[in-house]
Amino acid sequence: MLLAMYNIFVFIFIGFMANKMRLLGNKHSGILLGFLINFALPAQVFNGTYHAQIDSSFLLLCLVSLVSNFFVGGVLWIIGGVLKLDGATKITLSFMGTLGNTLYLGFPFVQGALGNDYANLVIIYDQFVTGIPFAFLAPIVLSMSGKTSFSFKSVFQKLFKSPLFLALLCGAFFRMLPFSIPDEFFSPLKALAQTATPVALFAIGVQLDLKGILDWKMPTLLLGTKMILAPFILFMFVKVFVGDFSNLHKLALIEVAMPPLVSGAAIIYKAGLNAKLALNSVTFGILVSFVSVPIWLYFA
After folding, report:
1. Which of 89, 158, 198, 223 sits a CA distance of 20 to 30 A from 170?
2. How many Å apart are CA 5 and CA 112, to the nearest integer?
3. By the 8 A CB rule, do 51 and 185 touch?
4. CA–CA distance from 182 to each of 51, 63, 187, 234, 287 (Å)?
5. Would you say 193 and 35 are in contact if contact means Cβ atoms under 8 Å apart?
6. Which value, to the nearest 10 degrees, does the dihedral of the CA atoms of residues 182, 185, 189, 191 take?
7. What is the pLDDT of residues 35-83, one digit of tens each?
8. Nearest 5°: CA angle at 41, between 173 and 65?
9. Mean pLDDT of the chain
10. Global pTM?
11. With contact defined as beta carbons under 8 Å apart, do 4 and 108 qualify?
């Protein structure tokens, strides 16, 4: 786990320094993100979906995680109303509190703590708990800001054009075939997938802005619910209905305890809402995760 945290920190730091030293321009960033979203991550999703061992217990944990996240989003909306915050801040709090960085950051955390077999499950977990909900929530947030109008047709069109979702469907399709695919077929996909984590963490580092940490009040409220209340709900569910934590339960606990989603901040910025709060919560949350995730694993 410590080695995984060290690797995460180094890749993020390299990206951060590359930005500060102006080693990357907008053109390079676009190429980097295009490679990540259209090639490296879909290869990781396809490989993980095909090889992951899925059962009813895993799907139940995905459901409980989803409920925990949406509960937190609702709590933040209510708190925003009680504190009489403006509409932009309320939407930002609720949206960012509902979605976690379950793939870019959650994958290396789980891989380091539990191994590659459980890391494959993260791919499917991410799509069920983060990817598909994000596909529906992002247009709703944009429509609430008046930027666009929401429609289920446009959501499904974008969903079925998403390389990540298509890779998930392809992986599921190949799992249902009455024969096994030779492992040699996955060799180039695995090589491509191995680049996803360092590139994603590097991209996170490029977007970090440590100046935002000084504005800590609203991000603390957001992270206190997202990274404490949500995992606490899952923690109590396992304690009450299961008893002991298996590695599968630890996987879900790590994922629910992840800080807000980086892509969520991009949607908030595009919608013209409280982008400063969104970006600060992402930055502050990544730093907090280096302390909070080991603590949750200790109690588990």
Report:
1. 198
2. 8
3. no
4. 12, 32, 10, 38, 41
5. no
6. 90
7. 888 888 888 888 888 877 778 888 999 999 999 999 999 999 999 999 9
8. 75
9. 85
10. 0.84
11. yes
